[in-house]
Design a protein that fits this description.
alpha+beta; Elongation Factor Tu (Ef-tu), domain 3; about 30% strand; nucleotide-binding
Length: about 800
């Protein structure tokens, strides 16, 4: 696309690592896209205009195209989500050999949730085993939309070589020169095809009839045109069909799917696809109005700018005599934009990618960040050309651009330029919280530990991770309080591997990625004997003496509160203080020294027990679900002025440790492990394999199996399309696989289960292999559960 639009002088190639938009070293080494890249170009090129623009079709009038190249790998799904959030239209590229893959279904569902108009380009038709017919049928069965075949492949010779496409809309054929750069194209009319390839001509007429039939079912205007032409599909003008396709694509995205064909490795079919982008996909003014939130008030941006939303100014002091009307408030908004991506560029510093939704963002404008409530100045504005950039003076509504050097902006923040903005307080009260619909971040599913090489390196690694997290919010960093490990979590193994590469190679942090330590717990299984300990020792040169009784038992859930009980970290600590009878009867307890009140004794006993519970007697894991009862008897355990709170605390700690040690000797201390709530989403076909794997191999309990009522796939509400009614040209060497998938991917199912965390480490890889890449899962911590005999041995 960049080559034909005159943006580059040579065609980049994934295999040679010379592509424009895949410019990261990791992308070139692996031959895949890892981060989305933005490029702006003109199509058609400004040089190529000869037709008077008034009567020219859309595809011949130069349009500015902002192109974002997004990844296809499941691990980088967040890159797709944040790009989809700001797009007006999308080209979905399918592999002509593999057909509709698992990740295509996911991305299609994400695009459906944003109502994005889409067209499909079936690529790689030059490869062995390419099957255009099967792919078109899969579009119907898996993406639940009617495929409108706008181009059919042109196969030539005995070995059916792919040389061009038949254009169904314009009723002609286009043939590309063998081995060229794709700029030499031969054009054949229906007449010329009688000689050149009568078979293609017959198929082209069939395809035209099928296309008109599909469109008549969706668009009444074309139906009228068809009736005017006496039901003759070939007599309908090409422009009428293009207009009808455009109405269907923009009016109900995803219901009708225009399909185009080509092979980008042989440079076939790219220019007609660019024409289709101009002809069929919407410009920014044809998209629904952006949704906004103003505190509790929800509405549309254009309603706000036209003063239709009733906003009430609150909390501001009126210093002028003339009150400010809502219309005057709104008229000061110079521009409104959404930051959808943050990148750390080695040469240019922090680059914030924005999409402007109203007005324009000018160079040196003061921008108010409505999420963080800070002002920043847009000192440099750039138009990105993948890894290169051009300085520009302003970014207009509908355009994508970059602001260099913002310190605070993150993905999903709304930036607003406001005339006469107060640097500290921002715009007047209701407007300073104006937010465009934010970008949702999917929960992480894959975890690994990051280990700095030394203590001195820890801060550097943490700072570098903070930079990575600002760039990619789908990464999460947690410090595990148990093991002290720094845990990095993301969307998959490759995602974390790339994050580690950037950490070590780009930011030169000294750290390695290791396995996760699972934090186990210990618990009391049955009641232990009472242990009495008398603490008698000097503490910091001061004599201390106190006694205490302790006993431990498993924590039983009770409905009411137990008196004098504190709950800490999943344990209960009950303190009983026995006072001599004469103290109880007198109004003021006389034998208590001034430093020792009943409250302070109780607090000291609790603190001592908490310290003892932090390390269990069996393996040094903290205790959980245990109930400790401490008794402090004044007649036995109080030793006058020597009994201080520190001594009582130490006595409680030693007594608790002693009673727990007694439990180990009698084998009444068990181990517990964290158990996760897991919700797995899969199709009917792989349900049995997943349930069997969870319950037999992973020691999990399946709680429920549900049909997908929540419309997870985003297309479930659409009726299942009968693939027999879909038109697709026959494949030259059809292997009979065309009908294999005609029933569609089947019902989506939810499996809710509880599985030990140990078994969920690295589960994503396993799930993808069980479900042919279609399964997804989310998990959250449920609670700690006691280990069974065989699992305890394994640990």
């Amino acid at each position: 696309m960049l080559y034909y639009s005159g943006f580059t002088r040579r065609i980049g190639d994934v295999d040679d690592g010379s592509t424009v938009t895949d410019f990261l070293p990791a992308e070139r080494a692996r031959g895949i896209t890892i981060q989305s890249a933005a490029v702006t170009f003109q199509w058609p090129p400004l040089v190529a205009i000869s037709v008077a623009q008034s009567e020219a079709p859309r595809s011949q009038i130069p349009h500015t195209v902002n192109l974002i190249d997004t990844p296809g790998h499941a691990d980088f799904t967040f890159e797709v989500i944040r790009s989809l959030r700001i797009l007006d239209g999308a080209v979905c590229i399918l592999d002509g050999v593999a057909g509709v893959e698992a990740q295509t279904e996911k991305v299609w569902a994400q695009a459906s949730s944003w109502n994005i108009p889409r067209i499909v380009f079936v690529n790689k038709l030059d490869r062995e085993g390419a099957a255009f017919e099967r792919t078109v049928r899969e579009i119907g069965s898996r993406l639940r939309g009617w495929p409108a075949v706008c181009q059919i492949p042109w196969w030539v010779g005995a070995n059916r070589r792919f040389t061009g496409v038949g254009d169904v809309i314009n009723l002609c054929a286009l043939k590309w020169a063998e081995g060229g750069d794709g700029k030499t194209i031969e054009h054949f009319t229906l007449e010329a095809l009688k000689k050149e390839d009568p078979e293609l001509r017959t198929e082209l007429i069939k395809a035209r009839t099928a296309l008109v039939e599909v469109l008549c079912g969706q668009d009444e205007a074309l139906l009228e045109k068809w009736l005017e032409c006496d039901d003759n599909s070939l007599a309908i003008p090409a422009q009428a069909i293009t207009d009808s396709l455009r109405r269907c694509v923009i009016g109900s995205p995803g219901r009708l799917i225009p399909v185009f064909a080509g092979a980008s490795f042989r440079n076939i079919g790219v220019q007609p696809l660019l024409d289709a982008v101009n002809n069929l996909l919407p410009d920014p003014t044809e998209r629904p109005d952006p949704e906004i939130a103003l505190g509790p008030l929800n509405g549309n941006l254009s309603d706000l700018l036209q003063g239709k939303l009733s906003i009430v100014q609150s909390g501001t002091k009126q210093l002028t005599k003339r009150p400010v009307t809502p219309k005057a408030l709104v008229s000061n908004i110079g521009g409104c934009a959404l930051a959808f991506k943050v990148v750390n560029d080695a040469r240019r510093g922090v680059l914030v990618y924005i999409r402007v939704y109203s007005g324009s963002i000018n160079r040196n404008a003061v921008l108010w960040n409505t999420n963080l409530h800070v002002t920043e100045r847009a000192q440099r504005l750039l138009q990105m050309q993948a890894s290169d950039a051009i300085e520009i003076s302003h970014i207009q509504a509908g355009q994508i651009g970059v602001i260099a050097g913002l310190k605070h902006a993150r993905t999903g923040d709304t930036l607003m330029s406001y005339a006469g903005v107060n640097p500290k307080g921002g715009p007047p009260t209701p407007l300073n919280s104006l937010q465009l619909r934010p970008i949702e971040i999917p929960p992480p599913v894959f975890f690994a530990a990051i280990e700095p090489h030394s203590l001195s390196e820890e801060k550097n690694v943490a700072d570098t991770l903070a930079i990575l997290l600002r760039e990619d919010p789908s990464l999460h960093v947690d410090i595990d309080e148990e093991s002290g490990q720094m845990l990095l979590s993301g969307m998959g193994e490759l995602h974390l591997e790339i994050a580690r590469d950037r950490l070590v190679n780009d930011f030169k942090a000294k750290a390695t990625m290791g396995n996760i330590e699972i934090s186990y717990r210990e618990c009391v299984i049955s009641k232990t004997e009472t242990n009495r300990v008398v603490f008698d020792r000097e503490v910091a040169g001061k004599k201390g003496k106190a006694g205490c009784d302790a006993t431990s038992a498993p924590l039983v859930e009770t409905t009411g509160e137990i008196p004098y009980t504190e709950y800490r970290d999943g344990n209960a600590i009950t303190t009983r203080i026995l006072l001599p009878s004469e103290i109880v009867t007198s109004e003021e307890p006389s034998t208590l020294s001034p430093e020792l009140s009943l409250d302070s004794i109780q607090q000291a006993l609790t603190n001592g027990a908490v310290a003892a519970l932090a390390r269990g007697p069996r393996r040094g894991f903290p205790l959980h679900a245990s109930h400790i009862t401490l008794t402090f008897d004044f007649t036995k355990d109080f030793f006058g002025p020597d009994t201080t709170t520190a001594a009582i605390s130490s006595a409680a700690r030693l007594a608790t440790q002693a009673t727990l040690k007694g439990g180990v000797e009698k084998d009444t201390i068990g181990l517990m492990e964290p158990v996760m709530n897991v919700v797995i989403n899969c199709d009917e076909a792989s349900l049995g394999a997943i349930v069997h794997d969870l319950s037999s191999a992973r020691g999990g309990h399946v709680l429920s199996l549900e049909n997908d009522a929540d419309d997870i796939s985003g297309v479930e509400d659409r009726p299942v399309i009968d693939t027999k009614k879909i038109y697709a040209p026959p494949d030259p060497f059809a292997s009979g696989r065309g009908g294999v998938d005609s029933a569609g991917p089947g019902q989506q199912r939810h499996i809710t289960a509880r599985v030990p965390l140990k078994e969920m480490v690295g589960y994503l890889k396993h799930l993808r292999s069980l479900t042919a890449g279609r399964g997804t899962f989310v998990m959250s911590v449920d609670k700690f559960e006691r280990l069974s005999g065989p699992r305890e041995k394994a640990v």
